[in-house]
Write a structure and sequence with these properties.
It contains 3 helices and no strands. The chain is an all-alpha fold and about 130 residues long.
């Protein structure tokens, strides 16, 4: 089963995954482009006003750093969507291989008479140990 079919069975069409990944990348770029403007002396020139301006500038920088971390998180989530799709495809393919082996093994033991079974051969030696 193709990755597209697999995602469709989960209700997630491929174009939706592509749209979400694109949107996450755009939002990350938009967040990274925003730079905080300097506070200046909006609280006056007094010592208390200067201290308040300094603390406001520090707070604004913390918010800017958090926004950059959010952008990095969006990029990480975007990449994880792609690797999740690849893991789902691998798992589905491997499951199909495993189920085929189980089906073949079950065909060997299902008939009551080996003479009617074209899937398996009777052991010829080693049964008398």
């Amino acid at each position: 089963m193709q990755a597209l079919e697999m995602l469709e069975t989960l209700g997630l069409p491929e174009d939706l995954i592509a749209d979400v990944r694109s949107m996450l990348n755009e939002r990350a770029e938009a967040l990274e482009a925003v730079k905080p403007t300097p506070i200046g002396e909006v609280f006056g020139g007094s010592p208390a006003g200067s201290q308040l301006s300094h603390h406001a500038a520090l707070a604004r920088q913390h918010v800017a750093d958090a926004v950059l971390q959010m952008a990095a998180g969006l990029r990480g989530f975007r990449e994880e969507l792609g690797s999740h799709e690849a893991r789902m495809d691998y798992t589905d393919t491997q499951s199909a291989v495993d189920l085929k082996k189980i089906e073949e093994a079950a065909a060997c033991v299902a008939p009551a008479d080996f003479s009617a079974n074209n899937q398996c051969t009777l052991p010829t030696a080693g049964g008398d140990d």
